[in-house]
Amino acid sequence: MKRLLLLLGLALLLGAATYYLCRRPFVDHAAGCGMAMDQRVEMKWLRAEFHLDAAQYARVVTLHEKYQPVCDNLCIQIAAKNEEISKLIRANRVVTPELSQALNEAAALKVSCQSNMLEHIYAVSREMATGDGQRYVEMMLPVITDTRTVTPPPSGSAHCEKSHHP
Protein backbone atom coordinates (compact mmCIF):
# COMPACT_ATOMS: atom_id res chain seq x y z
CA MET A 1 0.00 0.00 0.00
CA LYS A 2 2.85 2.39 0.84
CA ARG A 3 4.46 1.66 -2.52
CA LEU A 4 1.24 2.42 -4.39
CA LEU A 5 0.81 5.68 -2.50
CA LEU A 6 4.43 6.56 -3.17
CA LEU A 7 4.03 5.90 -6.89
CA LEU A 8 0.78 7.86 -7.02
CA GLY A 9 2.46 10.72 -5.23
CA LEU A 10 5.38 10.48 -7.64
CA ALA A 11 3.03 10.59 -10.63
CA LEU A 12 1.25 13.64 -9.26
CA LEU A 13 4.53 15.35 -8.39
CA LEU A 14 5.94 14.57 -11.82
CA GLY A 15 2.86 15.98 -13.50
CA ALA A 16 2.98 19.16 -11.42
CA ALA A 17 6.73 19.54 -11.91
CA THR A 18 6.36 19.08 -15.65
CA TYR A 19 3.68 21.73 -15.77
CA TYR A 20 5.86 24.23 -13.92
CA LEU A 21 8.98 23.32 -15.88
CA CYS A 22 7.31 23.86 -19.21
CA ARG A 23 5.86 27.22 -18.43
CA ARG A 24 8.17 30.13 -18.86
CA PRO A 25 7.92 33.54 -17.25
CA PHE A 26 4.89 35.49 -18.48
CA VAL A 27 2.96 32.42 -19.63
CA ASP A 28 -0.73 32.65 -20.38
CA HIS A 29 -2.12 29.57 -18.62
CA ALA A 30 -5.32 29.66 -20.65
CA ALA A 31 -3.26 29.23 -23.83
CA GLY A 32 -1.51 26.10 -22.56
CA CYS A 33 2.00 24.94 -21.82
CA GLY A 34 4.73 27.09 -23.26
CA MET A 35 2.51 29.69 -24.91
CA ALA A 36 3.70 33.22 -24.10
CA MET A 37 1.02 35.89 -23.55
CA ASP A 38 2.96 38.27 -25.70
CA GLN A 39 6.36 37.10 -26.83
CA ARG A 40 7.32 40.62 -27.91
CA VAL A 41 6.71 41.98 -24.40
CA GLU A 42 8.75 39.15 -22.91
CA MET A 43 11.60 39.74 -25.32
CA LYS A 44 11.55 43.52 -24.77
CA TRP A 45 11.72 42.93 -21.03
CA LEU A 46 14.67 40.56 -21.52
CA ARG A 47 16.44 43.13 -23.71
CA ALA A 48 16.00 45.93 -21.16
CA GLU A 49 16.66 43.83 -18.04
CA PHE A 50 19.88 42.32 -19.37
CA HIS A 51 21.14 45.33 -21.35
CA LEU A 52 21.17 43.63 -24.76
CA ASP A 53 22.39 45.66 -27.73
CA ALA A 54 20.70 45.23 -31.13
CA ALA A 55 23.00 42.40 -32.26
CA GLN A 56 22.69 40.49 -28.97
CA TYR A 57 18.93 40.97 -29.00
CA ALA A 58 18.66 39.62 -32.55
CA ARG A 59 20.67 36.52 -31.62
CA VAL A 60 18.54 35.93 -28.50
CA VAL A 61 15.34 36.26 -30.54
CA THR A 62 16.72 33.67 -32.98
CA LEU A 63 17.57 31.35 -30.07
CA HIS A 64 14.04 31.69 -28.69
CA GLU A 65 12.48 31.02 -32.09
CA LYS A 66 14.64 27.89 -32.46
CA TYR A 67 13.83 26.66 -28.94
CA GLN A 68 10.06 27.28 -29.00
CA PRO A 69 9.11 24.28 -31.20
CA VAL A 70 11.32 21.99 -29.09
CA CYS A 71 9.58 23.17 -25.92
CA ASP A 72 6.12 22.94 -27.48
CA ASN A 73 6.78 19.40 -28.71
CA LEU A 74 8.00 18.26 -25.30
CA CYS A 75 4.97 19.84 -23.63
CA ILE A 76 2.65 17.96 -25.97
CA GLN A 77 4.46 14.68 -25.26
CA ILE A 78 4.44 15.29 -21.50
CA ALA A 79 0.73 16.13 -21.47
CA ALA A 80 -0.06 12.96 -23.43
CA LYS A 81 2.09 10.84 -21.12
CA ASN A 82 0.45 12.36 -18.04
CA GLU A 83 -2.96 11.53 -19.49
CA GLU A 84 -1.84 7.95 -20.11
CA ILE A 85 -0.57 7.69 -16.52
CA SER A 86 -3.86 9.05 -15.19
CA LYS A 87 -5.84 6.47 -17.16
CA LEU A 88 -3.59 3.64 -15.96
CA ILE A 89 -3.86 4.77 -12.34
CA ARG A 90 -7.65 4.95 -12.56
CA ALA A 91 -7.90 1.54 -14.24
CA ASN A 92 -5.82 -0.36 -11.69
CA ARG A 93 -5.38 -0.88 -8.00
CA VAL A 94 -1.80 -2.07 -8.28
CA VAL A 95 1.28 -0.82 -10.05
CA THR A 96 1.23 -2.69 -13.31
CA PRO A 97 4.22 -3.10 -15.61
CA GLU A 98 2.49 -0.70 -18.03
CA LEU A 99 2.09 1.95 -15.31
CA SER A 100 5.68 1.51 -14.21
CA GLN A 101 6.86 1.90 -17.81
CA ALA A 102 4.69 5.00 -18.32
CA LEU A 103 6.12 6.57 -15.14
CA ASN A 104 9.66 5.87 -16.37
CA GLU A 105 8.84 7.37 -19.77
CA ALA A 106 7.38 10.46 -18.08
CA ALA A 107 10.54 10.84 -16.03
CA ALA A 108 12.64 10.61 -19.21
CA LEU A 109 10.51 13.31 -20.83
CA LYS A 110 11.02 15.54 -17.80
CA VAL A 111 14.80 15.06 -18.03
CA SER A 112 14.68 15.90 -21.73
CA CYS A 113 12.61 19.01 -20.99
CA GLN A 114 15.02 20.15 -18.28
CA SER A 115 18.11 19.44 -20.42
CA ASN A 116 16.76 21.28 -23.45
CA MET A 117 15.64 24.21 -21.31
CA LEU A 118 19.01 24.43 -19.60
CA GLU A 119 20.86 24.30 -22.94
CA HIS A 120 18.64 27.15 -24.13
CA ILE A 121 19.23 29.18 -20.96
CA TYR A 122 22.98 28.70 -21.27
CA ALA A 123 22.90 29.71 -24.94
CA VAL A 124 20.93 32.87 -24.13
CA SER A 125 23.26 33.68 -21.23
CA ARG A 126 26.30 33.42 -23.52
CA GLU A 127 24.86 36.23 -25.64
CA MET A 128 24.88 38.55 -22.62
CA ALA A 129 27.66 40.39 -20.85
CA THR A 130 29.29 38.07 -18.29
CA GLY A 131 27.59 39.57 -15.22
CA ASP A 132 24.19 39.74 -16.91
CA GLY A 133 24.55 36.18 -18.21
CA GLN A 134 25.35 34.89 -14.73
CA ARG A 135 22.39 36.83 -13.32
CA TYR A 136 20.10 35.37 -16.01
CA VAL A 137 21.19 31.80 -15.22
CA GLU A 138 20.69 32.50 -11.52
CA MET A 139 17.22 33.92 -12.21
CA MET A 140 16.29 30.84 -14.27
CA LEU A 141 17.73 28.32 -11.80
CA PRO A 142 14.43 27.91 -9.89
CA VAL A 143 12.68 27.15 -13.19
CA ILE A 144 15.17 24.39 -14.01
CA THR A 145 15.24 22.88 -10.52
CA ASP A 146 11.53 23.55 -9.93
CA THR A 147 12.34 25.00 -6.52
CA ARG A 148 9.71 27.69 -7.07
CA THR A 149 6.97 25.29 -6.01
CA VAL A 150 8.47 22.69 -3.70
CA THR A 151 8.89 23.40 -0.02
CA PRO A 152 11.18 21.28 2.14
CA PRO A 153 9.41 18.62 4.15
CA PRO A 154 9.04 19.08 7.89
CA SER A 155 11.70 17.33 9.91
CA GLY A 156 11.03 13.61 9.94
CA SER A 157 8.55 13.78 7.05
CA ALA A 158 8.89 11.41 4.13
CA HIS A 159 7.32 13.69 1.49
CA CYS A 160 7.48 17.17 0.03
CA GLU A 161 4.47 19.40 -0.07
CA LYS A 162 3.69 21.76 -2.90
CA SER A 163 3.32 25.37 -1.92
CA HIS A 164 0.44 27.35 -3.32
CA HIS A 165 2.71 30.10 -4.62
CA PRO A 166 3.85 30.24 -8.28
Features:
two-stranded antiparallel ribbon, 2 strands, single chain, disordered C terminus, 166 residues, mainly alpha
Please report which band the strand proportion falls in: under 5%, 5-15%, 15-25%, 25-35%, 35-45% or over 45%: under 5%
Q: SSE order, as H and E?
A: HHHHHEE
Structural class: mainly alpha
The biggest sheet amounts to:
2 strands, antiparallel
Distance between the termini: 32 Å
Broad shape: elongated
Helix content: 55-70%
Number of β-strand runs = 2
Q: Tell me the Rg in angstroms.
A: 18 Å
Mean pLDDT: 78
Unreliable stretches: 10-14, 24-35, 156-166
Q: What is the domain total for the residues?
A: 1
Structure description:
This protein is an all-alpha fold and 166 residues long. The chain has one domain (2-152). 70% of the residues lie in helices and 2% in strands. Strands 1-2 form a two-stranded antiparallel ribbon. It is elongated and about 55 Å long. The two termini are 32 Å apart. 19% of the residues are buried.
